[in-house]
Amino acid sequence: MWSDIACPWCYIGKRRLETALAHFANRDSVDLVWHAFELDPAAPAVRDTTQQSYAERLAKKYGTSVARAEAMIQRVADTAAEEGLRFDSSRKQPGNTFNAHRLLHLAHLRGLQGLLKERLLAAYHSEGAAIGDSATLQRLAVEVGLDADEVDSVLSSDLYAREVRDDEAEAGAIGVDGVPFFVIGRRYAVAGAQPAELLLQALNKAWDELPPQTLVADRR
User: Fold this and answer.
1) What contacts 187, CB < 8 A, 6 or more positions away?
2) Which member of 62, 68, 157, 160 lies 3.0 to 4.6 Å from 105 by CB, making a disulfide possible if both were Cys?
3) Which numeric CATH code is attached to 2-47+93-209?
4) What's the rounded Cα separation, in Å, for the pair 78 and 42?
5) Which DSSP string corresponds to 77-136?
């Protein structure tokens, strides 16, 4: 699954995928890997939120009114609530997600990628955590079980930068221009935070049509 921590639909898509997997008979044969995608690669590490509200920034980005942006935010929050998620846009602190993606690569090697992905999404969308702040990332990564010294080594270097760029290059090569984006068995793709029922159909289709083997979201 290609996604970005700053993307609300990616969190919704994650929950819908989890619902689909809960009903997938061969769940134990699925290996889910999270791939990096940056919605705003040029974003500062931590954005000044005192000058503009989230709705004002969104209105400027999409060339619409603040009222319409607020309605858009509410629609997303309502959809998230249907999946059991609580979004709090009033506390949101946008920032660059590149370092978060680098830590997700470390977490993948340590068997903690799923836990860290969930923690980052919850911290950003529900708790108002500054997702581009190194101290915040250090705290969140350690919370899910990553070694503090190892996390510090990543954040103070360019470790896993190439892996993040490789993810993004692969996304471009296969035509990913928005997230969430699911690839199943390296053959079937689903774009967007589709309903759990559709994702389950895709999983079943892949299982039925691919040669007998472990079904993976991606395997390097």
Assistant:
1) 206, 209, 210
2) 160
3) 3.40.30.10
4) 29
5) HHHHHHTT----GGG-B----HHHHHHHHHHHHTT-HHHHHHHHHHHHHHH--BTT-HHH
- CA-based nearest residue to 148, from 132, 159, 130, 135: 135
Q: Give the integer Cα–Cα distance in Å for 183 and 20.
A: 14
pLDDT digits (tens, 9 = 90+) for 114-142: 999 999 999 999 999 999 999 999 999 99
pTM to 2 decimal places: 0.93
Using alpha carbons, list the distances in angstroms from residue 140 to 93, 96, 135, 158, 171.
15, 16, 9, 19, 26
Does pLDDT of 81 surpass 80? yes
Pairing of strands 181-184, 35-36: unpaired
Q: How far apart are CA 66 and CA 217, in angstroms?
A: 38
The DSSP element (H or E) to which 32 belongs, if any, is: none
Q: 17-34, pLDDT tens digit by residue?
A: 999 999 999 999 999 999
Tokens of 64: 């619409």
